[in-house]
Amino acid sequence: MTEQRNTTGTATANSPDGTAAERSQGELVAARGLRRTFNDSPVLDGVDFSMQAGQITVIIGRSGSGKSTLLRVLAGLTEPEDGDLTIAGHLVRKGGVRTDDYAKGEALVGMVFQSYTLWPHMNVLDNLTLAPRKVLGMSRSEAEDRAATALGEVGMAHHIRSRSTGLSGGERQRVAIARALMMRPRLLLCDEITSALDPPVAAEVLSVLARLKNEEGIAVALVTHDMAFASKAADRLVFFSQGRIAVDATPEQVFRGCENAELRSFVEAVTLS
Ligand SMILES: Nc1ncnc2c1ncn2[C@@H]1O[C@H](COP(=O)(O)OP(=O)(O)OP(=O)(O)O)[C@@H](O)[C@H]1O
Ligand SMILES: [Mg+2]
């Protein structure tokens, strides 16, 4: 994949600075031939996946089809057995193995999970600043400045001193998004972050993602069953089946009735549930 480095990584997609419009240009993710097996089953069976900067990609598929595994591989949390991965022009993996350049690419990726992962005994500010300060050695003032900015971006600035146990589920997920924003990611991976929330609260959390895309130029890959959000806000819908991407299309193409019968029945099932 080295030959792709100069073509995939534009300076703008790569840079934490610049305007939202500048940051949302170019190919941000290029994955080729990702493979990962669990218990002799090919969970990722040669996945090719790409994302443009500043786009929202919704990933759907049946339980166990490999959606979370793909996100975890992109975030560097699960090791693939094979495949090449380039993020914002940095070749992160070659033949499944991390390259010397991996940290530059992985640093641009943030991830938010389904379950609330905030420290219950800390307030919101400490939840956001703990890892940057202790792990990365960021100064208190820089970490607090970033936390204030990140909380503003998710509409939670007024809760900066709140204890995380006092927050509602939707508020906790917005703080979890803010925590991921602390490292100024260009790509935010969200794994069923609203599935424990009531629909109106889920819609509020998802609207934060659309705003981050529009105002900050952040690309989002989101695993969700929320077809209302997918049809309104997604630039692309990716359907996973048997360890591969079976359909990669616009929401219009999917909801107008795509040719893949498995996807049609999946969309009907989740829309009716
Ligand atoms: N760490 C692991 N150890 C063993 N098996 C795993 C591991 N992670 C994932 N798997 C298996 O890989 C398959 C795909 O899992 P994955 O979590 O990616 O699916 P998913 O599409 O996210 O499903 P869901 O919609 O239920 O979240 C499943 O059969 C799962 O049991
Ligand atoms: Mg999953």
Automatic annotation (TrEMBL):
It is a peripheral membrane protein. InterPro entries: AAA+_ATPase (IPR003593), ABC_transporter-like_ATP-bd (IPR003439), ABC_transporter-like_CS (IPR017871), MetN_ABC_transporter-like (IPR050086), P-loop_NTPase (IPR027417). One of its GO terms (cellular component) is plasma membrane. Residues 29-267 form the ABC transporter domain. Residues 1-17 have a biased composition (Polar residues). It comes from the Bacteria. One of its GO terms (molecular function) is ATP hydrolysis activity. Keywords: ATP-binding, Cell membrane, Membrane, Nucleotide-binding, Transport. Residues 1-25 are annotated as: Disordered. It is found in: Cell membrane. Its main location: membrane. Coiled coil: none annotated. Belongs to the ABC transporter superfamily. This is ABC transporter ATP-binding protein. The gene is glnQ.
